[in-house]
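Bench notes, afternoon.
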Amino acid sequence: MSESFEFRSLLISIQADYYASIGTYTKFIFVKLPDLLLHTALCRSLFVLPHLINIQLRRKNV
């Protein structure tokens, strides 16, 4: 009787951990990841834009 109860409580705790980790991953995928991608895209555009403008100005001067 007590063994099956311990096993069941172990299963419940494993399930709870599983669902908690799924929640964490989903939060990461839907919240953190877009922020990260947006930040990376903004940084890239800030680095690339002046370079592109410089190239355009050089072409006009030539």
